[in-house]
Amino acid sequence: MSGGFNITKKGPGSLSISTANTYTGTTTIEDGVIVASNATALGTSTTPIAVGNAASITNNLNPFFSVNGGTTIARNITVGANGDPTTGTFAIGTGNAGSTAVIGGTVTLNQNLIVSATNTAGGGGGLNLTAAVTSGSALP
Description:
This protein is mostly beta strands. It has one helix at residues 54-58; strands at 2-3, 7-9, 14-17, 22-23, 27-29, 32-36, 49-51, 63-67, 72-73, 77-79, 91-94, 101-103, 107-109, 114-117, 127-129, 133-135.
């Protein structure tokens, strides 16, 4: 995919993206799962990947951003659009036990976040957050 358009994942279910893309718009996960298996699966934009937005919060949806093992995502991530109460679940993680997935950008929390990672007994797999995890201005 290439161009200046935006992508918003809506509704339950999973969308897996394994190829490199060069679109430069925003990426928002309103509900359901996006699985990235390539460093530029979600384009080359400099805007943060949004895990949840105002619709996710007001409608108690469950956005989940999953990075497959062996993939490094360098972009920043913003969790939730504000700190309004929600019963939805906001999550990032990996389900691939073979090798470690990396999120290299800053993660800004405007909602509580669940971090999940598959790890094998032999030490393979897992999820590394290599930059800062910060509290957004809207998080109580």
